[in-house]
Amino acid sequence: MLLLVVSQYHLWSRLSSGSVFAPEFPRPVVILFNWAFGTLVLLWCLQIVLDLGLLTMAIVRWQHVGLPDAARYGAMGLAAVAGAVALSNAVRVPPIKDVEVEIAGLPPQFEGYRVLQLTDLHISKLFPAPWASAVVARANAADSDVIVVTGDFIDGSVEMRRKDVEPLRALKAPDGVWAIPGNHEYFFDYGAWMRHLTSLGVRMLPNAHAVIRRDGAELVVAGVTDLSAPSVGETGPDLGLALRGAPAGAPIVLLDHQPRRARDAATKGVALQLSGHTHGGMIMGLDRLVARANAGFVAGRYQVGGMTLYVSNGTGLWPGFALRLGVPSEMTRFTLRAKT
Q: Would you call 228 exposed, middle or buried from its count of C-beta atoms within 10 A (0-12, 13-18, 19+)?
């Protein structure tokens, strides 16, 4: 009965809020559910490994091969410990990860320019206001020139998350905070969230761009909407529209929640694309499956033609499967260098 209750975590989430993406239980209950559900999934994997080993031995020996009960209980204990570690990794406030990116034609005025990327915050009952406040404090202390957020701010409606997202109002950088929607914004009244995030001082770039100027030199920060937008009647990603009117010759930093269209962006002259969405695959080994659904891109740096693509592991995580093993969360600080 316990296993049955745990296995239906996403059903209970839907009953609690109307959406599988927003479990509206007290945070300790959400943590407990994630640990138990994660343990169940990990135990399932371990039992398959054990049974495949037994089957292989039985075939080699051509006789029945047994397994002590202690091995099964040991697998259960290992899964429980691994689930706890994975959950702890998921809910932490991530450290700053530094990445240097060389950009052809970068003006000298932008040499050493620092861009801080946050993504996949998934502010929710699992990642509430205190967690968001700690992320904002660390982001503001990162001494970046500009902060960008590449989507999936939330899980829940504006009314559900109003207090939890309020700390984002304190997010500050000299050249502003720029952002795009992720697919989860479209699950919870996209228009309401765009208005609310804008009211918090986050400048949204849905198929639009901004120009950052320094002593006569220019850098373009462009953004597109998410691939899921047309499914709810909203405008899909349009890079051509986003770049319309952008100054010719200025390096382009593109914010695109999903990395799948990176090859198209590379042909449009984008120098650096920042994405999220994949959560890095969450668990070592699972990343290979996630990559298949994202045109081969899942985590870290990729060279796509003349463009650098960076896919962040994410700052937070969907509260329906909050596990990280070998795939740490991150807040990523990019330092731009001229390509020699």
A: buried
